[in-house]
From TrEMBL:
Designated name of the protein: Transcriptional regulator, LacI family
Keyword Ribosomal protein: no
One of the Pfam families matching this protein, by short name: LacI
Family matches, as CDD domains: HTH_LacI, PBP1_AglR-like
Gene Ontology MF annotations: DNA-binding transcription factor activity; transcription cis-regulatory region binding
Domain of life: Bacteria
PROSITE patterns, alphabetized: HTH_LACI_2
Swiss-Prot/TrEMBL keywords: DNA-binding, Transcription, Transcription regulation
HTH lacI-type domain location: 7-61
């Protein structure tokens, strides 16, 4: 196959009978070039298949035309069926790409310090804007981005305000889960949560505790079990639940990656989710469709979530550190009933 030769700015200028400088100024919508000339240059460029040298333009303007998603690698979670960031990235890129922006992933390895990783990325000017994942309750990275006046959106909340963020409704999921289980007759309801310090863990725990107390059920810290949010973590979670002197009759999972291991451990013990232990998972995930019985969990379109995140990024880039309004949104999740959360035995 013969490869089509790229059309350069000299070819475009020759076709139009204009100087290269005039064509360049027209492509960059400079005010000293008339709208009619700008339109003619754009139409001719499209007809010839000319695209500007983006690296040269970025160098002149001091920009990268890049948005970076800063996220942890989470290798064990990915191996456990985690698809969160892939789906969010799809929606994010769908919004950014038509604006001439490229999405890059900056994965922070497990051996690296998240703070220092972010600081280096900002100091090297790797991107024009940042999407910051895995926000902590107190997060130095947020303070650094604000100090450096870098446009950014938090993929999650922190205790501090003063920046735009988008987050899933962890509190709503915890409250609905407790309400559903109490309605089925459960009183000893455990919580399987991650052993990491991300803020959503605290949000979920606070709502779980408040929801129990709203139903007149005392909070028991022994029923809150922290494990790695992986399949193996789910297996260990089940083992600890089954070994408890006063075994809980239900468990809520704060991460969907725990479900596979928990189901496996129950099967190894000759027990069935929904009959011997009521289970409510967090997010619906195609990997979990193979579980039997079907898992009661919560649905969210991560592609739409990513699209909304993209619009927030564009708004922050347009705001560019000015005193304009911030956007802080909690994204709702829909309960999907399965067969894993029946009434307690006896």
């Amino acid at each position: 196959m013969v490869r089509r030769q790229a059309v350069g700015i000299r070819d475009l200028a020759r076709e139009l009978g204009m100087s290269i400088s005039t064509v360049s100024r027209a492509m960059n919508a400079r005010p000293d070039v008339s709208p009619e000339t700008q339109r003619l240059v754009r139409e001719t460029a499209e007809r010839l298949g000319y695209t500007p040298n983006q690296s040269g333009r970025s160098l002149r303007q001091g920009t990268t035309d890049t948005v970076a998603l800063v996220m942890p690698t989470h290798t064990a979670r990915t191996e456990s069926g985690e698809t969160f960031f892939l789906n969010v990235s799809d929606g994010l890129q769908e919004v950014l790409s038509p604006r001439g922006l490229n999405l890059v992933i900056l994965p922070c390895g497990s051996a690296e310090q998240p703070d220092e990783f972010l600081f280096k990325a900002v100091d090297r000017h790797l991107a024009d804007a940042i999407v910051l994942a895995d926000t902590q309750r107190v997060d130095r990275r947020i303070d650094y981005l604000i100090e450096k006046k870098v446009p950014f959106v938090g993929l999650g909340r922190t205790e501090a305000g003063g920046y735009s963020w988008l987050d899933l409704d962890f509190e709503g999921v915890a409250a609905q889960s407790v309400d559903r289980l109490v309605g089925l007759g459960h009183r000893r309801i455990a919580l399987g949560t991650t052993d990491r310090t991300v803020n959503n863990t605290f949000l979920f725990l606070d709502s779980y505790r408040a929801s129990l107390e709203r139903h007149g059920i005392g909070y028991d810290p022994e029923l809150v079990i922290r494990v790695p949010d992986t399949r193996q973590g789910g297996y260990h979670l089940a083992a600890r639940l089954l070994a408890a002197p006063h075994r809980p009759t239900a468990v809520i999972l704060e991460q969907e990656t725990l479900a596979i291991g928990l189901y496996r451990a129950l099967a190894d013990a000759g027990l069935t989710p929904g009959r011997d232990l009521a289970v409510i998972g967090f997010r619906e995930n195609p990997v979990l469709d193979l579980l039997t019985p079907s898992l009661t969990c919560f649905r969210v379109s991560l592609t739409n979530y990513g699209r909304r995140l993209g619009h927030l990024v564009l708004a922050e880039m347009a705001r560019a550190g000015s005193a304009g309004p911030l956007t802080q949104e909690v994204w709702p999740m829909e309960l999907v009933s399965g067969d894993s959360d029946g009434a307690p035995l006896g």
